[in-house]
């Protein structure tokens, strides 16, 4: 199965380091981040989970739940979390899915045979409150993900859902945003009271609307 942007994230039941879950119930009305790891007790994964744990307050502010997945079992997850907490100076509070039979990994297309027949690649999905997949990003096993970029995209998605805007290259929260071409400049001046800067008829900026 290949999941594409706009698809409904498949539901599943699973064991995790924090007990059994039903995925859609776990997400509730929140945004969600589901990300896979090649294996427990691996160095890059240890740094990723540690850093993600340190971002807990950032995800809480964005009403976003985080859940990881690895093809190892619950006991390994729980013991590995102790290592993560020790080496990364944190306290991992989000669940890690146990997927020893690779059922969920195959459901979400997290195993790429040309990379590994058994381990998951570093895939990450952002899922909105309607359970729609809004971002899919996949890294090679040797490269740790940039979770500051994940926060940036999350900010963009939440802003775009609240206002009729788009975000430009390298946009950061608080910077000017782009007015989509479907909105005329005349209408834009009514919609965006902070002002409209027209560079070209198709390229117009406005200060970020209040969120």
Task: Report on this structure.
The chain has helices spanning 23-27, 43-54, 56-61, 74-88, 103-107, 147-162, 185-191, and strands at 13-14, 21-22, 31-37, 64-70, 96-98, 122-127, 133-139, 177-178, 197-200, 203-206. The chain is an alpha+beta fold. It has 2 domains: 7-145, Glutaredoxin (3-Layer(aba) Sandwich), CATH 3.40.30.10; 164-207, Antioxidant, Horf6, Chain A, domain2 (Antioxidant, Horf6, Chain A, domain 2), CATH 3.30.1020. The strands form 3 sheets. It has a 5-stranded mixed beta sheet. It starts with 12 loop residues before the first strand and ends in a 5-residue tail after the last strand. Residues 3-159 form the Thioredoxin domain. Belongs to the peroxiredoxin family. Prx6 subfamily. Belongs to the peroxiredoxin family. AhpC/Prx1 subfamily. Keywords: Antioxidant, Oxidoreductase, Peroxidase, Redox-active center. The active site is at 45 (cysteine sulfenic acid (-soh) intermediate).
Which features would summarize this protein structure in a list?
211 residues; Glutaredoxin; Antioxidant, Horf6, Chain A, domain 2; 2 domains; 3-stranded antiparallel β-sheet; 10 strands
């Amino acid at each position: 199965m290949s999941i594409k942007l706009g698809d409904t994230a498949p539901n599943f039941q699973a064991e995790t380091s924090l007990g059994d879950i039903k995925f859609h119930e776990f997400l509730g009305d929140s945004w969600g981040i589901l990300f896979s790891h090649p294996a427990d007790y691996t160095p890059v994964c240890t740094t990723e989970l540690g850093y993600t744990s340190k971002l807990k307050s950032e995800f809480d502010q964005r009403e976003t739940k985080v859940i990881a997945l690895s093809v190892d079992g619950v006991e390994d997850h729980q013991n590995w979390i102790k290592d993560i907490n020790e080496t990364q100076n944190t306290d991992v509070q989000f669940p890690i899915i146990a997927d020893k039979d690779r059922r969920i990994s195959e459901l979400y297309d997290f195993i790429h045979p040309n990379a590994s027949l058994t381990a998951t690649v570093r895939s990450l999905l952002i899922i909105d409150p309607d359970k729609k997949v809004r971002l899919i990003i996949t890294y090679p096993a040797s490269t740790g993900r940039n979770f500051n970029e994940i926060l940036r995209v999350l900010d963009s998605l939440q802003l775009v859902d609240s206002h009729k805007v788009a975000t430009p290259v390298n946009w950061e929260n608080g910077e000017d945003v782009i007015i989509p071409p479907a909105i005329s400049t005349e209408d834009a001046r009514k919609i965006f009271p902070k002002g409209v800067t027209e560079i070209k008829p198709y390229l117009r900026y406005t200060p970020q609307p209040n969120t």
